[in-house]
Amino acid sequence: MARTSSHSLSRYGNLLAPHVLLIRPPKKNILTSNSLLFFDEKTLIIDTGSQRQYGHLKALSKIVDIDNIFFSHYHIDHIVGSHILPNTKKYIHELEKTALHSLENYFLYCYQNRNILQELKGKWFQRLMFFLKREGLSTWERLNLGNVQSVQNGVKINIGVTELQVIHLPGHSPGHCGVYDPLSHILFIGDMEISSNFGPWYGWPNSDLSAFRKSVSAVIEFIQKHDISLIVSSHSREVTKVEGLILLYRFTNFFDSRSQQIFDYISCHKNGVTLKQIADQSFIYKGKESNPSFVWEFFELIHVEQHIKELLNHNQIQMEGNLARKI
After folding, report:
1. CA distances from 295 to 127, 178, 234 (A)
2. Does 253 score more than 90 pLDDT?
3. Mode of pairing for the β-strands spanning 177-181 and 163-168
4. Where are the alpha helices (DSSP H) in the chain?
5. Dihedral sign (CA 259, 218, 241, 167)
6. DSSP state of 150
7. Which residue has better confidence, 53 or 74?
8. Domain 258-326 CATH class label
9. I want to staple 73 with a disulfide (CB 3.0 to 4.6 A). Which of 37, 173, 202, 303 is the partner?
10. What is the average per-residue pLDDT within 243-269?
11. For the domain bounded by 6-251, which CATH number is listed?
């Protein structure tokens, strides 16, 4: 139960409704996410990844009893602040619970038994440890995720008059979820970043382009059938129902335009092209560079693989050895 008024909470974020606070990162850092706090007889916060150790979440925890955390999905930018709330009840979709048990589990869940070089595996472990150390943590165990409980699609989390509905929206990750609050008519869609210019992200081996397409369609259908006041995502700005529908259709177009670019590139090379050659064209990241460079290079290739699978299923291309060719 909150120990303070909604008015005093407004200094930590934007009050989207009398009982809903949108908490943005204190400053934009790589892999930071928004949090959404619902306060009623009890409180629930969606995601804890936006906060540095001395950021807004730590300050909020001193004036508000945060009873529940719901993780929209397992990615580190959505869970890393959980150490600030060690005794809070935590929930995540059932498909992703085991991913939070250890750093090794997290890594294996991301890669889904993909055969990678030991050198690259070491680089990714270092990358994950970077985000822990940024929070002042020396080990994964200090995230206090041992008590996470699993939930299923459609479950309702009751915190008083407010009853939050969990909506399974796989694609970005296997257990990625949105949340709908019928009281405020706010729909949270997680990493379905419709108000971003980058488009959908499905860059881990356990991402799924086909599932992502279906999830976007499901969100469009849900919005059309429900009274929606605002649509909130994890990394960018909130939008109205009308704007949200427009952006969701644009979001869907990203899938198609990427597939078309990849198909056109393959079509221009009668002798075939490798997936790495396609990835080198940077159809997804548009030439964006990263430090370290292996991060975007890896994600670009995974995106390409997702589209290759789709083009194969549609009988538009064929694979001959490691070469993709137009049929």
Report:
1. 9, 26, 21
2. yes
3. antiparallel
4. 6-9, 56-63, 76-79, 103-111, 118-134, 209-225, 241-267, 275-279, 294-313
5. negative
6. E
7. 74
8. mainly alpha
9. 173
10. 97
11. 3.60.15.10
